[in-house]
Amino acid sequence: MLDAIDRKILHHMQRNALLTSAELSDLVRLSPTSVQRRLHRLRRDKVIEADVSIVSPTAVERPLTMLVEVTLSRDRADIIDRFKRDVRDCPEIMSAYYVTGDTDFVLIVSAKDIPDYESFTRAFFYNSPDIQSFKTTVVMDRIKASQVLPV
Q: Which of 97, 94, 85, 92 is nearest to 128 (CA)?
């Protein structure tokens, strides 16, 4: 169970994972050693899942982002599991969600340009007999990109 200090640590770490223990201790009013122990526990217990850097898509020449709705041909566990595995192994897919409703999955896909995305669709979607259909929405402007949860 998270206490108020854990929540403060998480609040600050989500906004800046590069904070030192000393800086974080000042923000949460706890000794650096206590902060380190709490961070270790939060990581061990998978409350903090990863320390990541957010990279500019433009800086790495992948400025296009697409939201892709995918419908599988059949609702069978082996097909769903195979698709999940393929998604995890695909570097162009930044995020993926198994969803309810009219579609089975929603993907966030990165591309250099439209021809690059077309090549991706041919390799990933059209070559799979498990995919019935997919629908692409091109992102015109990234308004907010965050993994920050309210704690």
A: 85
